[in-house]
Design goal:
Layout (H helix, E strand, L loop, with lengths): L7 H4 L12 H4 L4 H7 L6 E4 L6 H11 L4 E5 L5 H14 L2 E6 L6 H13 L2 E7 L3 H4 L2 H4 L3 E4 L5 H14 L1 H5 L2 E3 L3 H7 L3 H14 L5 E3 L1 H11 L10 H13 L3 H13 L4 H16 L5 H16 L4 H13 L6 H16 L14 H5 L38 H14 L6
Parallel strand pairs: 1-4, 1-5, 2-3, 3-4, 6-7
Helix pairs in contact: 5-6, 9-12, 11-12, 12-13, 14-15, 14-16, 15-18, 16-17, 16-18, 17-18
Length: about 425
């Protein structure tokens, strides 16, 4: 193995945008980060994206390129005291860039402690998160930062990273590594550049001296002997959560609770699990069982209040209930179809009779005229047109094949007769 204690991913970390691979929509010529560095105008940012796609590297490149004092904190093991210490050092220096990894793990008090320094320009903040910042970053801090989404790396990006490492790193170059097959290496990396490079180093260092030919079999033999089963920071994290969600969707409570246990034993954030259940309750169950969303939401609230270890019981109840529930993705498909229709047809005019008419002028223009108030009619329904003329009759919600949505379908058929084909 390499004699240095520094992992390969750190040894070959790019120092400039010229060496950076991926995220072309942010770093390419004339793009936002390239322009920010070119114009020497640092701004507070939040990078949202999967693990190992360049969040930390971009923060370091920005600080290095702009000659800024650079501090880094991890939200996992830092608190308000650490934040205040950095702010004080930045105040003495005049200005600094603070990078906070996994900023979504900071609680409200910790995030509040950043606000004054960001607002006054004492620090330029760059936060990194794998979670939707809308859910995890307080609105006051979010409003002071520009959010940029980092995209998963493609297979070509990942291959280019390995070739770049072979060229740049003295030890790896000496290994005379010949990569004959890529599939296993790329699959095991899960799109995580850091993991890919460190896997490459592990494999190269585990092979006999001489010219080393890397095949899928060689990769699997070495990795199976040396890799951990679960890493909540992002190694097998996405494989396990994927298996978990697909087991619930596939109505297998046994597999679902098994993968739940894998995540619990691996120390996964229980709110991460609960949040995925709330999404699944609408996406995969929806109106087949509306109670699923209520239970999932209650589960999330209870998990937030209680935490480990007791919340494992609440998670198990929600998981087994959702897995055992009838399934329907009709609501999910409906919003997909609706958004696709809107993107194709643009801002179509709303029919005059269902427009709001708060002023006399609007009433003179026939806003709201001939609107029929449904509750004035038998069965609380009167047939009238609600869609713009250009998309009249478009069927976007198609109830699923289950008892609950069969009742909805029957109701809609009675209301609309042949109009939507229910």
């Amino acid at each position: 193995m390499n004699g240095s204690n520094t992992p390969l991913a750190e040894r070959v970390r790019p120092r400039t945008l010229d060496d950076f691979i991926g995220q072309e929509h942010l770093v390419g010529q004339g793009r936002v980060l390239e322009q920010m560095i070119h114009n020497k105008q640092p701004r507070s940012l939040i990078f949202w994206g999967p693990p190992g796609v360049g969040k930390t590297t971009l923060a370091q490149i920005i600080a290095n390129s702009l000659g800024m004092l650079f501090f880094t904190l991890s939200a996992i093991d830092s608190g308000v005291k650490d934040v205040r210490n950095v702010i004080e050092q930045a105040r003495k220096a005049g200005h600094a860039l603070l990078f906070i990894d996994e900023i979504h793990r900071f609680n409200k008090a910790q995030q509040d402690s950043l606000l004054g320094a960001v607002e006054k320009g004492i620090i330029t903040l760059i936060g990194a998160t794998t979670e939707n910042p809308s859910f995890e970053v307080i609105s006051a801090l979010l409003s002071r930062c520009q959010v940029y989404v980092l995209q998963p790396l493609t297979a070509e990006h990942l291959k280019a990273l390995v070739h770049q490492a072979i060229e740049k790193d003295d030890w790896l170059r000496e290994q005379k590594l010949q990569i004959q097959e890529w599939d296993a290496l790329l699959r095991l990396s899960g799109g995580d550049a850091r993991k890919l490079l460190n896997l490459t180093e592990l494999i190269a260092g585990s092979m006999p001296a001489g010219e080393k030919t890397l095949t899928d079999k060689v990769v699997m033999d070495i990795v199976q002997k040396k890799m951990a089963l679960y890493d909540k920071t992002g190694e097998q994290h996405y494989d396990i959560i994927s298996a978990f969600i697909k087991s619930v969707r596939g109505s297998d409570p046994n597999a679902a609770v098994y993968y739940l246990a894998r995540m619990i034993e691996g120390g996964e954030d229980p709110k991460f699990i609960a949040r995925r259940l709330v999404i699944l309750a609408s996406e995969d169950i929806g109106n087949a069982n509306p109670n699923a969303l209520l239970l999932a939401t209650s589960c999330f609230q209870a998990v937030e209040m209680i935490g480990y270890p007791e919340c494992r019981i609440i998670l198990s109840q929600a998981v087994t209930y959702l897995a055992s529930s009838p399934k329907s993705n009709a609501a999910y498909m409906a919003i997909n179809k609706a958004q696709e229709l809107v993107s194709k047809t643009g801002d179509l005019p709303v029919p005059l009779h269902i427009r709001n008419a708060p002023t006399g002028l609007m009433k003179k223009l026939d806003y709201g005229r001939n609107y029929e108030y449904a509750h004035d009619y038998a069965g609380n329904f009167i047939e009238q047109e609600f869609m713009p003329d250009a998309v009249s009759g478009a069927k976007l919600y198609d109830p699923g094949n289950n008892a609950a949505e069969a009742r909805l379908r029957e109701y809609l058929r009675n209301c609309w007769k042949e109009k939507y084909g229910y």
